[in-house]
Amino acid sequence: VSTGLIVALNATIETIRRSNIDLITAETGRFDIAIRKTDVAPDPFIPVDATIAAIRAADPAVEQVFARFQSIAEISAGGETGSGWLVALDPGVDTVGYVRVISGTYDLADRGAAVLQSTADTYALEVGDPLEIAYSLPQPREAGRADPAGASRRRAVLGLTVAAIVRLEGVTSGGVSEGVLVDLATVQEWLGLP
Questions:
Q1: How far apart are CA 36 and CA 108, in angstroms?
Q2: Which of 14, 149, 160, 194 has the least C-beta neighbours within 10 A?
Q3: Quick one: three-class SS letters along 68-116?
Q4: At a CB cut-off of 8 Å and minimum separation 6, what does 140 contact?
Q5: Residue 187: other Cβ atoms inside 10 A
């Protein structure tokens, strides 16, 4: 009886541990660490190749490093305008989390976008519909000072086509519920960023 109780207790503890890990990853994403620059950095963007090399050299236990672009952007579709997350990743190599397709095909080639379900509902988007993303490139601010009011910023607009309507599980943090996924190469070309 005691052996059976010990086995059952160990199984219960393991189940609870896995459940806790799933809850945490649903909120923060299925990755261990995210690296980004602060808003006082002179250049707000990270040189991808040099950073990946530095991370790999710093710790050989690192299994994967994925480059992403993630920011709030303006979304326009069907005569409506709002804001949501713009998440750019390389779908060929970025395997963090799960993209659950509700309709369409998860194919980000040729300026295709995977629209999060809540965004598709908000803008009444369906597969094949056009949408626009507008992004204002950030200007660094001086440490200890507020962002300069009225400072002009370069604004870039990108036309996309809805390729799929999706839900994300562990791809990003749980706070990303409105927005679109696009190909990282498309965003790099669009914004002129390596």
A1: 24
A2: 149
A3: CEEEEEEEEECCEEEEEEEEEECCCCCCCCEEEEEEECCCCCCCEEEEE
A4: 39, 40, 41, 42, 43, 44
A5: 22
Q: Scan for tokens 């950030």, then name that residue.
A: 138
Query: Which pair of tokens denotes residue 16?
Result: 């609870």
pLDDT, tens digit (0-9, with 9 covering 90-100), for 26-61: 555 556 677 777 767 777 788 888 888 998 899 888
Residue with tokens 């660094």: 140
Question: What does the alpha-carbon distance between residue 171 and residue 153 come to, in Å, rounded to a whole number?
Answer: 29
What is the model's pTM?
0.75
CA distance 58 to 33: 14
Integer-rounded Cα radius of gyration of the chain: 20
The answer to whether 130 and 61 have CB atoms below 8 angstroms apart is no
